[in-house]
Amino acid sequence: MKGSRELMPEENAVHVLRSGAKPREDSQWHAAFQYALPKELEDYANVLEFDFEVPLTTEPLRIDAVIVKKKGGGPIGKNIGKIFRSRNIFEYKSPEDSFSIKDFKKTFAYAHLYEYLHDGVNRRDLTVSIVLTKKPINLLGYLKSEGCGVTNPEVGICYIEGLEYACQIIESKKLGKRENAWLNALSDKVDSKSMLNMIEMAGDDKAGAAAYIHALMLANPDAAQEVIAMGSEELEIVLENAGYMPKEKAEALLQEKEELIQEKEELIQEKEEFIQEKEEFIQEKEELIQEKEELIQEIIEEKKAIEVLTQENSIMKKNL
Q1: What pTM was estimated for this model as a whole?
Q2: Chain CA centroid to CA 208, Å
Q3: How many helices (H) and strands (E) does the chain have?
Q4: Which of 74, 123, 150, 269 has a Cα-to-Cα distance from 160 of 20 to 30 A?
């Protein structure tokens, strides 16, 4: 790939080229996860429905994802979907987050609440999947101490047996890069080759992949630098959708913004001058009114003086 133009972040995007830059919010990772999960199971799109940020009550209680298996759909052969039943709850934790025993209990509390709120759904219909980057060693030890069975049917996948709901813990970094590329790459340890591979896998779905690619670039600034340096028109389209744009376009927009600011300042200046002129006009008008009132007063006084003189003349004529 050759001839890249320099790319710059949009004003509202975090600059991934700054060394050590990290995502500032979990929402960035969750947006990427919401793109990755359907991609992992796209071979079964005709029998699965995906709902994200599923509200449980009027309060802000939300499940990260619920995959509904349509009636009549056969078994799911994908490794992360072999456990699936009719309703499949997913809890996702970003690479920076651990998953504690309390987190596990909360996730199961959400599953209980989901079952309670949905008529016709019982525990035999539900599964719980927890997607993590870090292996929850303390949690697995706790579950074993509680008499639960822990098995590893697939690399990166643990089944937890003996719970109310069928449950699996997915360690995304242990998943195969070929079979589970989308979840495996949800990491802050992605190299430039893997990042470029994900960009190419997005294919024509550049707008849809924007949040996913953006999260990877934010979390892996050094790899992002290398990818941008490789350059290509397709890459630039993906990066623009992910919040980046060619340098010349960014500079043109900046210039346009500065010109608009200048025009606004000139309009403000004109308005201030107009207000000043208006105030001066009002002042002149008030002075004219004052002069008119003074002139009227002088006329009144002169009229009174003439009347006095006329009266005096009349008196003198009578005396003569």
Answers
A1: 0.63
A2: 14
A3: 9, 9
A4: 74
- 3-state DSSP percent of the chain in helix, strand and coil, to 5: 55, 15, 30
Specify the 3-state DSSP secondary structure of 90: strand
Q: Check if the beta carbon of residue 76 is closer than 8 Å to that of residue 84.
A: yes
pLDDT in tens, 217-231: 888 888 888 887 776
Q: Residue 75: which residues within 8 A CB-CB, separation 6 or more?
A: 82
- Sequence-separated (6 or more) residues with CB below 8 Å from residue 15: 9, 21
Element (H, E) at 71: none
| Segment (H or E) for 220 | none
Cβ atoms 54, 62 nearer than 8 A:
yes
What are the backbone dihedrals phi and psi of residue 20, each rounded to the nearest 5 degrees, phi first?
85, 5
| Rounded Cα distance, 225 and 320, in Å | 119
Nearest 5°: the CA angle 33, 35, 41 is 95
Cα distances (Å, whole numbers) of residue 83 to 69, 106, 124, 126, 167: 11, 21, 12, 10, 8
pLDDT digits (tens, 9 = 90+) for 253-285: 567 777 888 888 889 999 998 998 888 899 888
Instruction: Read off the pLDDT of residues 107-139 as tens digits, 9 standing for 90 and up.
Output: 999 999 999 989 889 999 999 999 999 889 999
